[in-house]
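Q: Fold this one first, please.
A: Sequence and structure below.
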Amino acid sequence: MKEFNFPVRYCVIILNTLVLSFSTPYMYAQEPVFPYFYRIYLKDKGANINSKYSASDLLSSRAVNRRQKAGIQAPDFSDLPVYKSYLDQISYLGLKLHTTSKWMNTALFKSQSAFDIKILLNLPFVSDVKIVKTTGRKSKFNDKLNFTVEQADIHSYDRPVSMVNGQPMLDSGYDGRNVLIAILDGGFMNADNISSLRGLRSRKGIKKTYDFVNKTDSVYNSSSHGTAVLSVISGNLPGQIEGTAPGADFLLLKTEDVNSEFPCEEDYWVAGAEFADSSGADIISSSLGYFNFDDPALNYKYSDLDGKTAFITIAAELAASKGILVVNSAGNERTLEWKRIIFPSDGDSVLAVGAVDGNNIISDFSSAGPSADGRIKPDNVAMGVSVPVQSSENSIGRASGTSFSCPVLSGMAACLLQAVPKALNSDIINALHSSADRYNYPDSLYGYGIPNIVLVLARLQNKYIRIPDNRSIVSPNPTTGDIEIIFPSPTQKVTVEIISITGKLIFRRDFADYAGRTIILTELRNREQGVYLLRVIYDGKTDVHKIIKLTDRS
């Protein structure tokens, strides 16, 4: 191992009365009630600063690869764990550890009674202490993840995709395959059985689950909000739901306490983001956000929306600095007292997503920018009114909120990453901005506007893909399944045929509309090993490629 030594240096929506009125709360093992939570900031990482850590000690291979792609050191100082001896000394005082943040070098402790903060501040390794949960409660925000599933169908079920010109992307075979999305939410009730996610479950696309509120692996409880969000990305019900990245893999992480609203939920969110990072997530999709709490003394101010003040925003920026694309709901506050975007959507490197209706008109609830320091926020908008969702087997319909416009773009981003694996999170954000319909006159409601995914793809491909001189090329060859066809220039129509070595036509497809310069073919996935001929007809040309199909032994 190499020695490692560094200097110290929402969704206001409505109660789902159609389905959840008689749902039974999930019962956890009984433990003492802890009304008080304290976030303790540590001065350093103690002896860990001189410990020998390799990248594999702290990060998955996926996480290391993502960072290496972006030229980011792995590991770095912020990856060092919080020093255990400090945690032990605090625990000896009678507090119980709930979670830590290695990025922020903080520890979240809880207590059954109020604790004297001065005792903690007198510890030589403690720099600050903030109380982040109290007994104060006004319960005004406890229902922020509730929503109504309505049966309205003013616009086609695939309008969220067509609005951003994403259908050619899906038609070209880009479905988010091999891209890992971490969804941070308040629970995923019914995600383990609803029909629109059957394909996701059958291919074992849910890679990990964890509840950072209750410290358990089970997340299929307490709220179906995350389930609805997941269905926007991965759902597939012909004629009812079309997910924006049905081939992506997922981490389902519960970071929202649905029973109260306190800043300690920011700590849960940060713990989830760190879990996503070390697990190798490419995208964080967060339909959550914070500003006011059950104890008004803990509320944020508009001046804090500067991208560098809120605990959760600082962490979201750190996640982005690790190469993760962080996509967050802008919030649903414009008709309410707060009106503004919510944290962490104020982050400079966070893609904040507002909501428009099916006619491309900004919704009345979509939170307004700009950030407190005058930056354009939200970044982009997508359909967030009457979006097709499923939250239970009997609840398939439409729901509204920036909670649902956010996963529209999260899924589309996954397809872009599949198509252009070398693209960085900053590349995708910049291309989403520059392709959008209001790029030349952004404002505080639409941001840069509705992006055009085909244009985004073209810009990313022009930067990262080797363009053939005058004929199509195919890779990989040999292949164990998928093959990608790359064209010298965009064309209007393509016909692809696969012919067996005996001359039998086994596959033919006409692509009347597709995205960018490439097409992904999945037809060979379930074909037997052997040699096939691929005939590609485009722009008056016919190219024939000999393809060797191998058996996938992974």
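Q: Good. Now the second chain.
A: Here it is, same layout.
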Amino acid sequence: MFQNNPLLAKLKQELNEQKPRVEGIVRAHEKGFGFLDVDNKTNYFISISKMKQLCHGDKVSGTIITNNDKESFEPEILIESSLRKFIGKIGFLDRAMAIYPENMPTNFAIRCKVNPQVEQKLKEGDWVVATLQSHPLEKDKNHFSAEVTKFIASSDSNYQLWLKTLARYDLEDEAPQAESFIISVNEQENREDLTDVQFFTIDSENTEDMDDAITISQNEMGNYNLMIAIADPTAYIEQDSEIDNIAKIRNFTTYLPDFNIPMLPKQLAEDLCSLKANQKRPTIVCKINIDNNGQFANDDISFIPAWIESKAKLSYNNVSDFLAGRSDLNNNNATIKEQLKLLSELAKARINWRQKNALVFKANNDYRFILDDNRQVKTIIKESRGIANNIVEEVMIIANLALTMYLKEKVGTGVFNIHSGFDTKYIEQILKILADNGITDFDKESLISFEGYIKLRRLIEDNDFLSTRLRKFQTPADFSLTPEPHFGLGFKAYATWTSPIRKYGDMINHRLLKASLKAQVLTPPANEQLDGMADRRKKLRLAERDIADNLYSQYLLDKIGQTFTAEIVDINRGGARVRLTDIGALGFLPLSMIHSVRDEIAPDPEEGIIKIKDETAYKLADLITIAIHNVRMENQSIIVKLIASNA
């Protein structure tokens, strides 16, 4: 009687339209129910039965149902699923294959099929890439289903962590493959023979892809004659060739803890192009005359394609120890020893020059994971930067500035690294912070200008609290096809070319430089390439962070109660983020682990301080002593508690 009754259908529609409608993000709970987060303050309960139509992270809309004064959410429309392409672990439900997506509740499983292109026979615990085929909220669908498209790692692989992380960010897990490489006749012509020159490299002990070598002399006026030889992979790789197109997609070599994936085939990256000792290699050499104050100009620079033969591979640690008088050099070449002393003088002169004419920031420590045969963390080594690191850094900056001058004057385009200082939407907030700290000689216009930014950075150079506080207001670095300022370095323009084995943007600049030197037609890079570089760089940083967080958590898991010195790097409503200065790990210090009486402690993220009883007790950049309280491997979080202030 009521079936297909148009009046009843209309009534139902009207009643439904009268219900409050919302949209938000689904947050699943391990016990099966969930919540719809509408904003930071508003959420609605989702029952277990309704959660069977949803997964954690889905963006959905629907209606609010009120029953006995209790509101709950009823999903109706899928706006965007959190699962499209995802990674997960293989399992079996009633002998049917299923996939358990990562970062979902442990009992959330999706039945799946395997794409025929996946050759491995999958077993329980294997990690795979999958794509969602159906979602219960999609039209004409009533269940979840997925298809496995790629095998990542077996359940017992020691490399599981690295392979999963690479897959998560859609990064390659192998070096490009190629048969053989030869240098074309065109690339061999007019290449000057500098194989007798005393070039040498300075790198880490285990570096194989060495793309720069140095030689230096000094004239009777005390000025420096510096030559920097940069490996030339474009001598082997033709533009738009298969290998070039692969490099164009990868953009960078992937560097993860104890696991590197080269941008170029290993035959090139670690052999034919690597500036190995006593091996003849094609390079582009930059010759620069630098006065004893560290200055040079356009007329002091020249570039030439050349053959070189490095005479020695030196290591950072050994060079630093030699120059500091702690040990002898692991090489008996007297000429190289004299060159190292000249390079040390030049580096100091250049640092002084940059302090007056650009910016020099305090060097950060490097941290290196030492893994055992099962790729578990044995220890973490803190590596301080010595004079050898300063030498290489200053020489590479010199070479890059030389190329920047050339591109600006002779070419007009290239891949330029840019940074525009502070994000303009925070300027008023920054001005208030400066005024509160007694700095009043800046206005909006000066603060967003190149000169004003440099003036401020120099002014607060030794103020760790203000430097840390203002860091979060900066724009990210980017790329440009035209010369624009790099506020962070303090240069009006900056382009790199010193790492062509590892960076595709540097290969582009090599080609532009070589075409200009040979008076050939230039092929300008495309904006799409810069977008790809920025996207890939972001993915690589996220991947490196994920690996490091996991390894840090693994290392600290059995160190509950051990104490460390830590620096406060951020303050939020719940407490403080701290960096353990001896190993580099980030931990979270909850307010309850700072002061036991909740009503007496108050964080002020805007001011970068934590007050206890209305008095400032802790602030950004403070050094404190903490103990490891808890390590949660499921989300790689390290919880610490306060032991003492180091002030």
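Q: Anything worth noting on the second one?
A: Residues 424-475 form one domain.
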